[in-house]
Amino acid sequence: MSGSDVEVAIIGSGFAGLAMAIRLALRGERRFRILEKAAEIGGTWRDNTYPGCACDIPSPLYSLSFEPNRDWTRLYPTQPEIWSYMRAAVDRHGLRAQTWLNAEVAEAAFDEAAGLWRIRTADGRALTARFLVSGMGGLSRPAVPDLPGLDRFRGKIFHSAAWDHGYDLRDKRVAVIGTGASAVQFVPEIAPKVSRLHLFQRTPNWIIPKADRSFGPFERWLVRNVAAYRKALRGWIYAYHELRFMGFSGNERLRRFVEGQALRHLARQVPDPELRAQLTPDYALGCKRVLISNEFYPALTRPNVHLETAGVRGIEEDAVVTADGRRLEVDAIILATGFRAAEVPAPVRILGRGGVDLSDAWADGISAYLGLLVKDYPNLFLLIGPNTGLGHNSIIFMIEAQVDYILRCLDLMRARGASLVEVTARAQDGFNREIQEKLRRTVWLSGCRSWYLDSRGRNVTLWPDFTARFWARTRRVREADLRFAAVPAE
Ligand code: NAP
């Protein structure tokens, strides 16, 4: 197969894009290019640099299985550690030469006659590729809340995913909007520095203790030198996380057990009954992402921190006005309001058969087959596409299963002499019916508002099963679900 600049174009250099690129490189296939919109690789782990940023999956599991990190220093890895691991992997596999930085994809259009993807970047570069692999991830587009008057604010304002380290928060009056996974991590870090912190909570989260620890010299030696130890630790942590799915899919006893653990954690750390009541969730644990922290609740008991639960009525030049009419003067507003994970449009203009924009194809809600393939979009693979996110285990496991599937697909095409692959409408629709049916029995549709749901209340982000089942589904390419063809001109 030739006629294209590269065989595979990969959008994004987060864990998804890197997993794809490294696996290709390990197979000796070098005809690929990574297109990265920013000036450095790393995706969400490059963008999120807020104080305290860390991963809530333990380090031995939060790495690529074929690229083990021997340098982890603690159980729950911090952002600088993860990002440096990613950069080291890129250098080790010589991927920089195959990466275009500052190359935001403006459009990728499938050329039906030539059977290839024509890609244009915002800065005017062009590339053709036989296959297009999207590693854009679900957490790459910060969500900015629609608060009346936000644009009138004259103080400092930034999103947690674009932290302004040049702004000194010391002795400032700060409003933080949102109490999700990001806020829970940075609020304890900034609380001792600022003069006053108004933390706007819309919905309390379930928070469980974080069993974090740094690895001692002997354990670091083991991690560095004994592959069997690394693998055993990884396997054990994987299995433990996998079991959590039972609590999210109908095992009431397990769910209530963890809820009890979280409530005891809250009671231990927050003596004031009024504050405790404000922080107590009234929905099933797991419906929104379960958070882990030992520092968040204690930060809220500080005299300079005020939990605001009345909601935001609007923003003025120098203040946030609460729904109950209080005017809180602040110097800075930090938006910890999360990401647009479930929303159309797709982050990039992707035109498939007939020039149809993926955003239009998804107007009734995003969906794909195995989160990977979309009907009428030949040779397009989406990593961490619809319904392949997780609420209970490491996303890297899902990425690896998807990359394996793509490589199997490419091998199969070679064996069959095919140059085009696409999923049948029947397979995609059947897959999505099955997913939505399974979701009905999970805690994620038990009636809370979460970023897992789209505007119609459909869960389009999570895989509603054990990840081992996803692995099993992607072990083999079901040929009946796909259509293979040769490019007419060939
Ligand atoms: P998030 O969990 O979606 O939290 C957003 C917060 O902002 C929520 O408290 C939400 O309230 C609030 N909010 C949103 N719009 C609002 C509005 N208009 N007015 C008032 N409040 C509003 O976002 P995140 O904390 O950035 O985390 C997103 C995801 O990133 C996580 O779930 C996780 O997957 C990933 N993440 C992981 C880690 C980690 O590994 N530890 C750390 C950070 C992020 P409601 O709850 O009421 O909607």
Describe this structure in words.
This protein has 490 residues and is α/β, with parallel strands linked by helices. It folds into 2 domains: 6-141 and 340-486, 3-Layer(bba) Sandwich (FAD/NAD(P)-binding domain), CATH 3.50.50.60; 150-205 and 244-335, FAD/NAD(P)-binding domain, CATH 3.50.50. Helices cover 30% and strands 18% of the residues. The chain contains 13 helices and 20 strands. It has helices at 15-26, 44-47, 79-92, 181-190, 217-225, 227-248, 252-269, 273-278, 296-300, 358-361, 395-416, 425-439, 467-474, and strands spanning 6-11, 32-35, 99-100, 105-111, 116-121, 126-134, 156-159, 173-177, 196-200, 207-208, 291-292, 305-308, 312-316, 319-322, 327-329, 332-335, 349-351, 380-382, 420-423, 482-485. The strands form 5 sheets. Strands 1, 2, 3, 4, 5, 6, 17 and 18 form an 8-stranded mixed sheet that branches. Helix 1 packs across helix 11. It is globular and about 70 Å long. It starts with 5 loop residues before the first strand and ends in a 5-residue tail after the last strand. The mean pLDDT is 94. The protein binds NADP nicotinamide-adenine-dinucleotide phosphate (NAP).
Any chance you could write out the topology, listing elements then pairs?
Elements: E1 6-11, H1 15-26, E2 32-35, H2 44-47, H3 79-92, E3 99-100, E4 105-111, E5 116-121, E6 126-134, E7 156-159, E8 173-177, H4 181-190, E9 196-200, E10 207-208, H5 217-225, H6 227-248, H7 252-269, H8 273-278, E11 291-292, H9 296-300, E12 305-308, E13 312-316, E14 319-322, E15 327-329, E16 332-335, E17 349-351, H10 358-361, E18 380-382, H11 395-416, E19 420-423, H12 425-439, H13 467-474, E20 482-485
Parallel strand pairs: 1-2, 1-6, 2-3, 4-17, 6-18, 7-16, 8-9, 8-16, 9-12, 10-11
Antiparallel strand pairs: 4-5, 5-6, 13-14, 14-15, 19-20
Helix pairs in contact: 1-11, 6-7, 11-13
This protein binds NADP nicotinamide-adenine-dinucleotide phosphate (NAP).
NADP nicotinamide-adenine-dinucleotide phosphate (NAP) binds at residues 54-56, 139, 145, 160, 177-183, 185, 200, 202-203, 289, 336-339, 449, 451.
